[in-house]
Amino acid sequence: MNEFRYSICKPTNPNIIEKGKIDSREIMNIFHNFPWKKHLDNAEKSDNIYYSPSLEFENISNKNGLAISAVGNPENFEFYVFFKRPKMKKTWFGLSEKMDNNYTSELLNLTKNTTIEILQALTDNRLNFLEQKFK
Predict the structure, then answer these.
(1) Cα-flanking dihedrals φ and ψ of residue 123, to 5°?
(2) Do β-strands 65-73 and 76-91 pair in parallel, antiparallel, or remain unpaired?
(3) Is the C or the N end of the chain the one with fewer CB within 10 Å?
(4) Is 45:78 a contact under the CB 8 Å cutoff?
(5) Which among 58, 79, 57 has a CA at the least distance from the CA of 69?
(6) DSSP H helix total and E strand total for the chain
């Protein structure tokens, strides 16, 4: 199994909370047990919102990661997913290439099931699937 690091963002906390290293087998449980609805409820009641409720997981060995945020009504929310990875980018009108270590793409308005499918691909290291999904 691969080792990941993860962090969380709570809407009313201005600090990103680093949770440390975990094994890939723990990721799905963390996602399923994260109190998405509770955090969205708290955000609706607060005047000081810093983040959407979010989880971030990054594979320590290859630096591929996902940031997952819940947005919308606490009773009917959706997910925004951001895929961060090292990627060669063309520069100078395609004449040269440069490594972007934090290249990020996003998918918006996702259902929970689609988000789970994407997260499972990260834990299984199915990077080709993720690249195709985030084109």
Answers:
(1) -65, -30
(2) antiparallel
(3) C
(4) no
(5) 79
(6) 4, 6
Structure tokens, 52: 């959407």
Place of tokens 């993720």: 130
94: left (phi over 0), alpha (psi -120 to 50) or beta: left
∠ at Cα 33 (68, 43), nearest 5°? 60
Flag whether the pTM goes above 0.85. yes
Share of the chain above pLDDT 70, in %: 99
Q: Which residues pair with 55 in a beta bridge?
A: 8, 68
Per-residue pLDDT tens over the stretch 20-75: 999 999 999 999 999 999 999 999 999 999 999 999 999 999 999 999 999 999 99
Residues for the chain: how many in total?
A: 135
Distance of CA 49 to the CA centre of its chain: 19
Beta strand extents in the chain (DSSP E only): 3-9, 17-23, 54-59, 65-73, 76-91, 96-110
Question: How far from each other are the two terminal CA atoms of the chain, in whole angstroms?
Answer: 27
